[in-house]
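Subgroup meeting minutes
Present: P.N., E.W., G.H.
Scribe: E.W.

1. P.N. recapped why we're keeping a running log of single-chain structure predictions: easier to compare across weeks, and new members can see raw inputs and outputs side by side.
2. G.H. added today's entry (225 aa).
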Amino acid sequence: MKVLVVDDEQPLLDALQYALEREGFEVITALDSEDALRLFHEHHPDLVILDVMLPTRSGFEVCQLLRKRSNVPIIMLTAKSAEVDRVVGLEIGADDYVTKPFSMRELVARVKSVLRRASSPGTAAGSVYKVGDLVLDVGRYEARLGDTPLSLSPKEFELLRFLMEHPGQVFTRQTLLDRVWGEEKYIEERTVDVHIHWLREKIEPNPRKPKYLLTVRGVGYKFRG
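Output recorded in log:
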């Protein structure tokens, strides 16, 4: 597996490279956003670790650019602990975030967990779900709305898949965390709301009046039955 690590602190970059290479990953490093974008297109990594505070472009901007072109899993690194910063990262398409300072064991565990979830659709190949104009093809790992392909992050795809597998069934946020995020221990319930919001922006004709992803007030969410 190939990992692109982007951080403007050389000592931290070296430590991350060492820790990941010890686990068998091939590691590519970049100190700034421009190198990050160039190396991403040259090497097509399986996962990106992306610091928020970068020169020229912020990590948020880089994440948005990558997400427009790829569903590659992205883990954001941030020195900020405010919830709004974590939510912004998730809203623009990141799959996870790690707040500095962090242990290398935690970071490596997050990398493995995100890659494991991204590579395991969890449904038999060939399954296709279709409701109205919305189509989710699990075998091809593709989604589309009518003739328009949808660029979903791995987590968005898994959340939508799980809900479409159980039409009409209501799930609490905690249940969705358990079933979609699994053993990732540091994820908050707010993460579910963020991903639901982001999915609605992509699949709903009118995200303010959703017809696919429905909120059951005081309980959680369900997919239109």
